Amino acid sequence: MNRRELLTGMAALGLAGPVQARPLMPLHDKPREMLSPPFVDGVGRDLTLEDFQGRVVLLNIWATWCVPCREEMPTLDALQEKLGGDDFHVLPLSIDRAGIKVVRRFYEEIGIRHLGMYLADSTRAMLALGALGLPTTILIDRNGFERGRLVGPAEWDSPEVMAQIQNLINERSD
Fold first, then answer.
1. 24 in a structural domain
2. Is 22 a domain residue?
3. For the chain, what is the domain count?
4. I need a labelling partner for 82 at 20 to 30 A (CA). Which of 56, 60, 68, 72 fits?
5. What's the CA gap between 66 and 35, in Å, rounded?
6. Thioredoxin domain: from which residue to which, for each copy (predicted)?
7. Among 2, 123, 115, 142, which Cα is nearest to 60's?
8. Range of the domain at 148
């Protein structure tokens, strides 16, 4: 048994914690409607998910105090660097109650350079998005529908995950 098979087996049993042990994002059979809590960006502008319509979005609900969230953040930064643009956006939605200043400090500490800063009220975000734990990551299509969801960390810049996301980016709505 190779390392990947071992880690995959451990993850299935709930025994693995490392980011690289996580599977690809499970996709839904059909797109699901979503609610969007209000949130703000790093300069205080009021936003909702509708502001990102027309792009594929990887919404990651996280907090600076969440250890698995902190571990996966560099892979989200790398994913945004590689695929981000007019067709795709990583939206790291912090639910830190201490506000955007702790997010900004965290980004500076670990060298996040390609991700925007977004902040939402923790209760409103968790309820509206149906998040049961952190991190929760939701893949949203160009029309604002949820296409997949993963609770727990992942290696977001792995070739397999990037290919999965690129497939959704390549889909064009009719």
1. no
2. no
3. 1
4. 68
5. 24
6. 24-170
7. 115
8. 37-45+53-169
Complete edge-to-edge strand list for the sheet that includes strand 118-119: 27-32, 146-151, 136-140, 56-62, 88-94, 118-119, 39-41, 46-47
The alpha helices in the chain, defined as continuous H runs, are: 3-12, 67-83, 100-110, 122-129, 159-170
pLDDT in tens, 147-174: 999 999 999 999 999 999 999 999 975 4
For the whole prediction, is pTM greater than 0.90? no
Indicate which CATH number applies to the domain containing 111. 3.40.30.10
Q: Which of 21, 92, 1, 102 is nearest to 52 (CA)?
A: 92
Cα(52)–Cα(87) distance, integer angstroms: 10
Query: How confident is the model at residue 24, as a pLDDT?
Result: 83
Beta strands in 11-161 (DSSP E): 27-32, 39-41, 46-47, 56-62, 88-94, 118-119, 136-140, 146-151
**Pairing assessment for the beta strands 118-119 and 136-140 based on DSSP bridges:** unpaired
Domain contains 28: no
Q: How far apart are CA 29 and CA 38, in angstroms?
A: 27
DSSP character for 86? S
